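Tutorial handout. Part one gives the primary structure; part two gives the three-dimensional structure as tokens.
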Amino acid sequence: MSDYQTSVLIIGSGPSGYTAGIYAARAGLKPLIFTGPQTGGQLTLTTEIENFPGFPEPISGPELMSRMRQQAENVGVQIVEDKITKVDLNSRPFICQSENGHRISADSIIISTGATARWLGLESESKFLGFGVSGCATCDGFFYRNKDVAVIGGGNTAVDEALYLTNFASSVTLIHRRDALRADQTLQTRLFNNPKITVEWDSVVDEFVGTDTPKSLTGLKVKNVKTGDIKEIKVDGAFVAIGHHPNSELFKDWLDIDAEGYLITPPNSCKTKIEGVFAAGDVQDPHFRQAIVAAGSGCIAALEAEKYLNELKSK
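Part two.
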């Protein structure tokens, strides 16, 4: 396989990766994007997006990412459908290898590998993903105005999402496998004081149920882990809030990561502890997980990479 040489290697192809590519290309850096296993990232699993600026009408996740890719290619970004599987961040330039056997030499690297939502792993969950089942209340909560929804989980993320959904939904049922929440006490107090929220304790989702035509979630079969009893709850939407897994495994021996696996960068910066290596998007953002925030950090990473390369050239 032929080798690649580039000033800027961007690993990942979500909003942060494509935005970094656009800014780097406009700076004349001739960036190279390796898409990773899921071209377009998590947004390709989202049916409708209403909160990305510039689109007055809802746009699907796959369509938005397709447009981002077209824009990146139009300004000169080279895109390779392949996954980086090995990195050497001690060498200068940096050396990477891909799943398809490519060897890449890069003067700088922008890591935009994103984060993956943790799912329950049920077949019925996959069936209704994007058709009533979601991993992001901030992204999809608006679609459930005056409807009944459920949130699965018991940590800060789950309680946050349950509280957020009360701005739209008629009722919110929190489903937790234990008899006590793990969330911060302040959040718990707010949750228990909210009349729209009820809690199903000691319970797990046994099955997501719905219709095939049109494909739509209509309820959940919930199992009590202590009694084994199963009951069905009627809901229009279900939000799985059991955490996210940042896709940082490839870099854990090279860069600083926090307890959850997110790459650590300084405030208002995408720099990592290794000069010339930057991290953007959900792989370094444990809080917001929004496409617009990821795109913004991709811009920052590209601008910082440009400055680094200019300083490198002057030396």
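Part three, for discussion. Residues 291-314 form the longest helix (24 residues). The two ends are 33 Å apart (CA to CA).
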